[in-house]
Amino acid sequence: MTLVRASDALALSNLTDAALRVRAVEAASTYDAALLISMTHGYMTTASRKGARTSVKTLDAYALAIKDYVPWARDAGVTLLHPGRRDGGRYVAWLQTRETQGNGKRGKLSASTVAQYVAGVRALYRALRWAGATEAQPFEDAHVPPDPTPGIVKNPPYRQEIDAALEHCDARLSALLLLCAHAGLRITEALNTTTGDISAGRIRIHGKGGKVRVVPLGKRVREAVTTLPPLTPEGNLFQWDYHQATYRLQKAFRAAGHGDAWRGFHAARKHSGTRLYTATRDFTRVGLFLGHSSVDTTRRYVAVQDDDVAGDVENF
């Protein structure tokens, strides 16, 4: 569920320039995180590059970042509309040294989480400039060090866990897992699948940013999805939300003896990308299959063996 009501953001977007500036100045001067989140939502959905197609996931991530930054700024003596030139770097340093919170996790924030928080706060300042409240860009020169450990190493693809877990799934849960692990769908894409999306052994996907792609379904996936009766008049094959689907798959992994191996649905998508790359040796084709706009993104989804070129260099 989104952290901001769309009506709040739309109401702010419909204000006159003068009224919007007044609200922005008021929110910043009182460190009103809720109003600043609504203002950022309004900016993202009406004035950013993606506009109304900005995903709810992105909006929620930015909202969490602002909820973290605003109290820090207040306690650190940062004036939101007139921050010091070093305040962006101070916040990044604080993020890198603070302990993670919630979800039973311990240790420092990951580099990807730090980058996500900083992206959210940068969006906040773009929103404040959009509202005419400031020209400040405190994070323009703030450097966010990348994680030296590749994502494919931190969260590698599932291997034998997929087939083992499938033995403990009912027909509908099996179809969901296969859509992610064999057809390479994102979990939100899989959960939104309808019977009308499937035709002639292919599935039509409405992906991130409104992009549409057609994905071929292997025999195993075809058999799994075409035998499922729809659950709604619209033809929806699933009625679970993300958390309900996660609970069911975690349970299947535990039953299969791989409870400690559960790493979310993205590892299933990487399983698909890695298997397809092994068969084709072509990142471009894998990227098209997964719906990536950049091959550089695809490389982060494929686990390549350390000795992958050993045979090629043998006779150099």
Brief rundown of the structure:
The chain has helices at 6-13, 17-29, 33-46, 56-75, 87-97, 111-130, 151-154, 161-166, 171-181, 187-191, 219-226, 242-255, 266-280, 283-290, 295-299, 310-313; strands at residues 198-199, 202-206, 212-216. By secondary structure, the chain is mostly helical.
Overview of this protein structure:
There is one protein chain. With 316 residues, the protein is mainly α. The chain has helices at residues 6-13, 17-29, 33-46, 56-75, 87-97, 111-130, 151-154, 161-166, 171-181, 187-191, 219-226, 242-255, 266-280, 283-290, 295-299, 310-313, and strands at 198-199, 202-206, 212-216. Strands 1-2-3 form a three-stranded antiparallel sheet. A hairpin with a 5-residue loop joins strand 2 (202-206) and strand 3. Helix 3 (33-46) runs antiparallel to helix 4 (56-75). The protein is globular. The mean pLDDT is 90.
